[in-house]
Amino acid sequence: MSTPRKPRGPYRKGIERREQILRAALDVFSEHGERGASLKEIADRAGMSQAGVLHYFGSREELLLAVLAQRDALDAEATADVMSPGDAVVRTAAHNTRQRGLVDLFVTLSAAASDPEHPAHAFFTRRYADLTERIEAGLRTAQERGEVRTDVRSDQMARMLLALSDGLQLQWLLDPGVDMAETLEAFNRMCLGGMAEQDGDAQQAARHDRG
Q1: pTM (predicted TM-score)
Q2: CA separation (Å) from 148 to 7, 65, 185, 207?
């Protein structure tokens, strides 16, 4: 079987340039959020002009969506070893507390994207459909193993988990004292069934005793 060839010449250079811009944009949006991040600062950090940035990303909106897609990809990579969808969301929430600007960007754009004419509408529609499908599949499998309660449909629990996660991000922006991960863990315990519920109660009691 032949090994796929790596991109060469101008095409490879273009990919590397886009990645360079995307890394700079991730840093800038993480530090300043949607409103505080400027195209000029992103261009400066990437070592090129604003026109150069727009050559690779046709508009600021296109760059914003690329940043959100990259954020999701990094989150997926960071939770690749997590078995349950609920635990993956908890880990992502804990990570989000270290990148306030990206949380601000997500909350701002997801709200605006409810308008069908908004550039981010298709991105968020597809994102929620994909996430709901993956989380539901994980919960359905857990139900079959007796690990998750069966009196609530898996698709309903999947949507509740996503709604809780997104709502907590907004609350955390307003009040940094909100513990997103802890609240999500409480929801996960509510979804447990059978012996898994008893194990979860025991783990919670052990954490409380250590505290």
Answers
A1: 0.78
A2: 46, 34, 14, 21
